[in-house]
Amino acid sequence: MDSQKEALQRIISTLANKNDEIQNFIDTLNQTLKGVQSQLSQCNNALENSEELLEFATRSLDIKEPEEFSKSDNGFSFSPFFETKVPKAPEIDPVECLVADNSVTVAWRMPEEDNKIDHFILEYRKTNFDGLPRVKDERCWEIIDNIKGTEYTLSGLKFDSKYMNFRVRACNKAVAGEYSDPVTLETKALNFSLDNSSSHLNLRVEDTCVEWDPTGGKGQDSKIKGKENKGSAHVTSLKKHTRSGTPSPKRTSIGSRPPAVRGSRDRFTGESYTVLGDTAIESGQHYWEVKAQKDCKSYSVGVAYKTLGKFDQLGKTNTSWCIHVNNWLQNTFSAKHNNKVKALDVTVPERIGVFCDFDGGQLSFYDANSKQLLYSFKTKFTQPVLPGFMVWCGGLSLNTGMQVPSAVRTLQKSENGMTGSASSLNNITQ
Question: What is the mean pLDDT of the chain?
């Protein structure tokens, strides 16, 4: 009976993961479709204008008198098509542009008033190039057409590149003008994946998802040892798969460090069903979100020093801080550090937001939807920390490449006076 339940649980978990993959694929297709539709709309507008111009030109051939040549039937004037000026290039004002909450607002103006402008076309692309925007880059321009105003907001972005380039051009009924000078805006955010090389064998890890797998450790030790014995060849292979992203905070994935450094992190074992992030936080303020599968029986979310022992569980040592959700036998929600536990009298949210202020020594957890504060640790980090996760009988998915939400920044200003109740867990500093 138990084996059948476990098998059913694995099937359900697999279906849930496949559902997420399909949803991500649909989102990608929708984004691509929007780009195609935008280009199609632009082509249709150009075709309509071209047909109208052709019609007027054909009518003009029937006009015999020179003074009537500039006029056509029905009171329309043909001469404006010859007199139409190409719109001048708009000017993007970086001071008026805003990057916040994973959204970018771009604002521009015309160098002089032009009442013939019908709409604007905004183009953008992500880039990791530090210099002035290049004509050709590793990524193509995305197009947003038929913008009637002089500003536009892109929302719901994942900031998985250091910068974004923007350019805009004006269009009248007949022709599109020149592009503005491109502007580069910084889109800095923490991007990380899960470190599969050190995760517990009973965890199936893929990029930003981790799932409990009770059969994961059987028959895999020899495979893992074989991979580890490949040495530099294994490192070279993984370098090819290292994701591009923001290099600060420092990425500690195998592609950016010598093999000896990566090998120094032992794989978690025993009852420490743990996996760490592959990027160390050494400074600054950062934010990410975690969502658990509905039937997940037990999981923890927090941070840890990379010296966390392979048998150590999150929150049970003085080198890790976390909140823990238990849905097995009895439901509990608690904060843990140094083997001390504080029960939390709040509802477990659907998604948990994690805010880490390394320099300020603060780790806070929020309801990602309402931004309600769940709990805050106040400490002093004396070495880099890694995002840490524990999961048993279920799975977790992460959302990275996120800016610290404005609501969280605002709450941080008044939060210091609210953490006194957590002092029992915060007395020990490292």
Answer: 80
The C-alpha atoms of residue 194 and residue 104 are separated, in whole angstroms, by 28
Amino acid making up residue 230: K
Provide the residue count of the chain: 430
CA distance 286 to 284: 7
Percent of the chain at pLDDT exceeding 70 = 70
pLDDT at 216: 76
Give the Cα separation of 35 and 39 in Å (integer).
Answer: 6
Quickly state the pLDDT bin for 225 (edges 50, 70, 90).
very low
The two tokens of residue 365 are 């957890």
* Pairwise pLDDT comparison (83 vs 35), residue with the higher score: 35
Output the six-digit token pair for 87.
């719109």
Structure tokens at 327: 């849905």
C-beta of residue 141 within 8 angstroms of C-beta of residue 35: no
Asked whether the CA dihedral 218, 221, 222, 227 is positive or negative, the reply is positive
Decide: helix, strand or coil at residue 422: helix
pLDDT-wise least confident of 148-162, 168-182, 218-232, 333-347: 218-232
Question: From residue 145, how far is each of 37, 112, 114, 257 by CA, in Å?
Answer: 9, 22, 19, 43
Pairing of strands 395-402, 320-328: unpaired
Q: The tokens of 272 are what? A: 């420490």
Cα radius of gyration rounded to whole Å, the chain: 28
DSSP string, 32-62: HHHHHHHHHHHHHHHHHHHHHHHHHHHHHTT
Q: Most distant CA pair in the chain: distance in Å?
A: 98
Report which of 356, 366, 363 is spatially closest to residue 337, judged by C-alpha positions: 363
Q: 430 pLDDT band (50/70/90 cuts)?
A: very low
DSSP 320: E
pLDDT tens digits, 4-20 = 776 777 777 677 777 76
Instruction: Judge whether residue 342 has pLDDT over 60.
Output: yes
Q: Over 90: is that where the pLDDT of 66 sits? A: no
Query: How far apart are alpha carbons 286 and 353 in whole angstroms?
Result: 10
pLDDT, average across residues 300-306: 96
Q: What residues are paired with 119 via a beta bridge?
A: 171
d(Cα 211, Cα 21) in Å, to the nearest integer?
Answer: 14
The sign of the dihedral angle between the CA atoms of 219, 225, 230, 233 is: positive
- The token pair that represents 33 in the structure block: 């479709």
